[in-house]
User: What shape does this take?
Amino acid sequence: MDIAFASARALPADWEQAALLGRIDLGDGPTPVIVRGGRVYDMSYVAPTVAALIEAGSFDTAAGTDLGHLDDLALSIDADATPRLLSPIDLHCVKASGVTFAVSALERVIEERARGDASAAAAVRTRLEERVGGSIRSVVPGSPEAAALKAALIEDGMWSQYLEVAIGPDAEIFTKSPTLSTIGWGGEVGIRSDSTWNNPEPEVVLVVDRNGKTIGATLGNDVNLRDFEGRSALLLGKAKDNNASCSLGPFIRLFDETFGMDDVRASEIALTIDGTDGYRLEGSSSMDQISRDPEDLVRQAMSEHQYPDGFVLFLGTLFAPTQDRDEPGRGFTHAVGDVVTISNPKLGALVNPVTTSKDAAPWNYGIGDLMRNLAGRGLLAQTKNQGA
Assistant: This one.
């Protein structure tokens, strides 16, 4: 499948009216840019990083350098070519919310009960759906009705730690990926080479400043290993955080008069998976089915925690693929070469081919490398927003 970047396939339907924030390597290193009216503005002399630009609140492109129309830049995704589109975040902490939809809650319980064995999932799914499928979809987390459902499930011997975070007062919030490790549009995402049951997780990702204000949103793939987490929730780190296991992009859409939190709440996220074997899977995740409001998840992420460079927050997904791929009853799992497309009319499309974490490009550009690059370019001296 051809995954060359093109604005018509990658950006929001109304992208020339949107305010988009991201990063491009122009040849000398990562550069924060804003796209407005179809034109790209280098903002590196306003603030050297996306995180700093957000904290400065400096989204006025008059202070940037006009690089021309986006379509004329001929953006590449090749690691050796420039200009190259990068993940739209840099110094942000990467956080994720889990089990925020009823269907995904049931799938986590199924993984747990099946002990990570995909062949046992179908029977567990049937029993669990018969017992709690309807009630868990209608209950408000942390409510008296949720407490009553919990008591009934405990009595039936069907309680689970996943149901605790699905309908209890406290959301599951975890750290998904180290700073600067995320993959951008077109980059290969990785699954562990020893995983036999895994899937993409198409999600809306909020971008939050150090004070807890959400300034925009983007698309994300919270690559998930169902076999590892199903064996033990204590393997969450191995299931979630591996080389190339987190992608974001193509750009952050800034909140303004054309896009805001209500658009996030109403988002329908589409997903397609195209395999080299001709296999195709289509799915979707409707944000109006989320059990917890996005702003509540942001508040819980910041409860007794600070993020001086801001953070991004994956909001979870309704998508849990059960369609058989190879063997009947084993459901879906990735094959190397799959191309995952996550899309929404207001946020664009995030496209990533799949490889193993061992074979993905190694992550070798950390915070120290970024600081040395910015210093060498003279971007750590006074910048325009500091009065230079």
